[in-house]
C-alpha cells in the first residue's frame, strides 16, 4: 500500500515517467511536468528519493534508480490500459453525443499524452 500512497500523490507518477529516458536537471524536469510549482516538485523529489526511486547525480541532475526503472516498467500496463480506456470513451461519445457528459470527456481530454 505504500506504493499506492506515494504514486497517488499528485505529480509523483509524472516525475517517474519523465525521468525514464534519462537524467534531467530541476528546471528541465519542471518544464517537462507542465511547469508545476517548484515547491511541489522539490517535495516530490524528496519523497521519491526517500523511497529510493530517484537519486541526484553528481552533476545535480535527477535520475531513476534501479527501483525507479522497475517502477516505470511496472506502470507500462497501466499506461496501455489507459490508452484503451480513452479510446473507448471517445468511441462512446461519438456514438452517443447526447449522452456525453462533461466529466467523462474531460477525463479523456485531460489525460497526459504518454508515449
Automatic annotation (TrEMBL):
Give me the stretches of Basic and acidic residues compositional bias: 90-103
* Compositional bias per record (Low complexity), positions renumbered to this chain: 106-115
Question: What keywords appear on the UniProt entry?
Answer: DNA-binding, Transcription, Transcription regulation
Offer one Pfam family short name for this entry.
Answer: HxlR
Q: Which InterPro entries match?
A: HTH_HxlR, WH-like_DNA-bd_sf, WH_DNA-bd_sf
Query: What are the transmembrane regions?
Result: none
Every HTH hxlR-type domain range: 1-90
What GO MF terms are annotated? DNA binding
Keyword check for DNA-binding: yes
Q: Where is this region: Disordered?
A: 90-115
What is the protein's name according to its record? HTH hxlR-type domain-containing protein
The organism named in the record is Streptomyces chattanoogensis
Task: Provide the taxonomic classification.
Answer: Bacteria, Bacillati, Actinomycetota, Actinomycetes, Kitasatosporales
Amino acid at each position: 500500500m505504500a506504493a499506492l500512497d506515494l504514486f497517488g500523490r499528485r505529480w509523483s507518477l509524472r516525475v517517474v515517467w519523465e525521468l525514464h529516458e534519462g537524467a534531467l536537471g530541476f528546471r528541465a524536469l519542471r518544464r517537462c511536468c507542465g511547469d508545476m510549482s517548484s515547491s511541489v516538485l522539490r517535495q516530490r523529489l524528496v519523497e521519491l528519493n526517500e523511497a529510493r526511486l530517484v537519486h541526484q547525480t553528481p552533476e545535480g541532475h535527477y535520475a531513476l534508480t534501479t527501483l525507479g526503472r522497475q517502477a516505470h516498467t511496472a506502470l507500462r500496463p497501466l499506461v496501455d490500459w489507459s490508452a484503451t480506456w480513452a479510446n473507448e470513451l471517445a468511441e462512446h461519445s461519438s456514438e452517443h453525443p447526447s449522452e456525453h457528459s462533461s466529466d467523462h470527456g474531460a477525463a479523456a481530454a485531460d489525460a497526459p499524452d504518454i508515449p
